[in-house]
């Protein structure tokens, strides 16, 4: 639908397109022989900008065109009412001259956003202290500053019939695999939904295995981490209104990497990474192993440890499987209560609740001392995982391990491991194997361990990039 030459008719059209919203306003002014009408949403514009940079120049420069009269602000010309309506919702002010069909769109949006702050969920000891915020333009500005190359490509999308959420994908053209970009484009364009709540909606709508507990995209709030993955040939998704970015494709091992690993000695970085993987194994299987050994196979334990377990369970009437499940549920309740309550109260509940409940259940002979230690160690092991999504998976996986161990003992524990490994081996994201790359030759240099920087000469295999070399002469001074 095109614009009318009469401002009164256009006003009626805008009111209809905006469902007679009360914040849609118009202002008229006359300069010489010309009559102007301004259209805007008063909840979206900065009135000072409209007054100083649009109204006053139009009143002063009476004999020139609108574009010439207002040279400071960026202006777009259109005759399409749909495009103009979208501009209104973005905070633009529309100027029309009576008798002309052209609509002039000026950027006058009100900028109310929080300042760039330190990362909250991905704190590191060394490295950048800047975090992404909810404003997409600000986030793109951060990324442009960190990656000062014309090779950085930004592509916009609009998703959501009603929310019309603005999304940007970022990649380095000379490094990225074009097939991955095409597949990502196909999936984003095919999303037909009223609104999206990023990044959770995008993850679920694009995951290849919808019923997998394991995250298939990496979520981060750190611009420096987004930069490092872009340099590896991956693609980032940033969404307006969300302080988190999505990285894809990634492997299972990426969720155990931390920016700290690359800021310290490679031996320490490798040690901490192996520790995280080891803690993940403990977090998912330690309660199950305890149930299997107590219920079926206590003889495999050293005699002194077996006696200790027997003495701690002597007056416990509850089966080991119920002990493990009930204590894990109590741990989850305490964890959720700590997160949802205000910070001062939440910390008190976490400490006092854990001490009181742990003491009471042991003294009342509901659970054994050893089970309290096992569950506490399991909870702490899950906290060490840098990714919240992978940590959440580690919180749910112990339950099938416990039930398999309660039924079949250590054989059940081994079967549970087999099912998890088979599931991980079948996972793919954008055609990239999820689990295989970390165990394949040179890729182990930056998955299970963190090799010295001068050994990381090639990019990660899951990026499927043709530009594999990223370090050419790292220690040229040794010649």
Describe the structure in your own words.
- The model has no long low-confidence stretch (mean pLDDT 84).
- The longest helix is centred in the middle third of the chain and has 30 residues, at 266-295.
- Helix 11 packs across helix 13 and helix 15 (398-408) packs across helix 16 (410-426).
- The chain has three domains: 7-107, no CATH class; 136-248, no CATH class; 264-429, no CATH class.
- The protein is an alpha+beta fold and 479 residues long.
- Helix content is 44%, strand content 13%.
- It starts with 6 loop residues before the first helix and ends in a 46-residue tail after the last strand.
- The strands form three sheets. It has a five-stranded antiparallel beta sheet with strand order 1-2-4-5-3, sandwiched between helices. A five-stranded antiparallel beta sheet has the order 6-7-9-10-8, with helices on both faces. A two-stranded antiparallel sheet has the order 11-12.
